[in-house]
Amino acid sequence: MASKTPRKPRKAAARTPSANTTSANPIVLALAAVAVVFVVGLGAKFLIGRDAPEAPRTVAEAPKPAPTPAVAPPPVPKPVPPTPAIVPPPPTVAEPPQVVTETEPNESSEEPAVQTAKPAPLPPQKPEVAMLPPPIAPVQPPPGTPAWKRNAVPSHPSSDKPAIAIVIDDMGVDRKRSNRAAALPAPLTLAWLPYAHDLSAQARAARAAGHELLLHLPMEPSGHADPGPDALLVSLGKAEILRRAKAAMDSYDGFVGVNNHMGSRFTADHASMALVLPEIAKRGLLWLDSRTTAKSAGLSIAQELRMPYAGRDVFLDNEMTVPAVRAQLAKTEQVARHQGYAIAIGHPHDATIEALASWLPEVQKRGFVLVPVSAVVRAHHAGG
């Protein structure tokens, strides 16, 4: 019995918690909570790691809607049709195409646009082209018309105004000054040396600019000046004089006549001139005597042959200064008032060109009419 009594207090001690065990319980619980959180976190990571490969699948499915933006481009071409509606403005672009055609060869990228623009303007252009032929139609000279009339620049001088013809000699060798002279207001009469380079091309350009043409035939001077290659010399035989004269007159075509370059000795020799002038007359050309000497036989022989002729009245530039040339132009006006016409001869010098550039635009205002030399010959010295 004594052994049974001590057991009871042990059971009571176990049931009644002590202060140490009661304080230990919160710590254990906290540790357990931390453990649980840690385990849960590991589980979440594990779960996320397992789900990660599935995420790309959903992302892989996302690109499928991307084709839908590709379907959007079809509407983009739809706005393009409105741009063709801009084509109607060609009426306002009708003038530019004519200018654009000039730049087409250098701008191949614009050719299609230009080609589409051209069809519209073409219809209005056709009637305009159809209207051009009537004024352009040239009046053909009747058969047998002599060369001096056939190649003459058309001119209708007024009967109540004195006529002035300006002749520029020595053309063609000094290309720069010759071009400047040919650029002066027309009609001038330009006398071209037969040994000039590109003679035919230079002369054609001058004729296209409205100027009349002469052959400036080199002849022997009295002094020691050089008249140029194949000049006509008194010392030559008759056959050589004719050969050189014919070769010079064959150097180019389209001129109305011949005048002498230098030639104070040759033109004074009656026998020599009697060989050359008949050849000029036979070709239907006129003779303009430059009168480099008062003893020239050219005018008297031309009268005997009853061929068209004329003689110089004034030299413009014996003194090559602008004031001197202007003084000679004033003298030319005096001669024209006195006899109804005047022929003045100058050269492609800077002073001559400058003086003429300011005088020519005012010639009509001063009461004169500018004419080619053929007009003077036709009105006053058309022999035969």
TrEMBL record:
Skewed-composition ranges (Pro residues): 64-94
Transmembrane spans: 27-48
Segments of this protein annotated with the region Disordered: 1-22, 58-121
Any Pfam family matching the protein: Polysacc_deac_2
Keywords tagged on the record: Membrane, Transmembrane, Transmembrane helix
The keyword Ribosomal protein appears for this protein: no
Biased amino acid composition, Basic residues: 1-13
PANTHER family (UniProt xref): DIVERGENT POLYSACCHARIDE DEACETYLASE SUPERFAMILY, UNCHARACTERIZED YIBQ-RELATED
Protein known as: Polysaccharide deacetylase 2 family uncharacterized protein YibQ
Lineage, opening ranks: Bacteria, Pseudomonadati, Pseudomonadota, Alphaproteobacteria, Rhodospirillales
